[in-house]
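Re: that backbone. Tokens:
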């Protein structure tokens, strides 16, 4: 009936699968931490540049565009 399922009698066959699972989970956690830290740095950088951008927009950006 369920021949496609394979449950080994020798439980030591699970060891490589568990090791691979732990490796990939730790890599996923590390990637998530890296992305969150990088995102926080970019947000901090953007918050510090925002007043400069507002001042630049008030003064004009010097592109030579004219209003009609």
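Recovered sequence:
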């Amino acid at each position: 009936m369920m021949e496609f399922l394979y449950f080994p009698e020798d439980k030591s066959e699970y060891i490589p699968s568990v090791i691979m699972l732990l490796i990939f989970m730790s890599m996923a956690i590390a990637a998530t931490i890296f992305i969150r830290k990088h995102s926080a740095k970019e947000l901090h950088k953007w918050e510090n540049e925002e007043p400069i951008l507002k001042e630049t927009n008030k003064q004009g950006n010097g592109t030579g565009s004219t209003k009609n």
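Residues 20 and 51 are 48 Å apart (CA to CA). The helical segments are 15-59.
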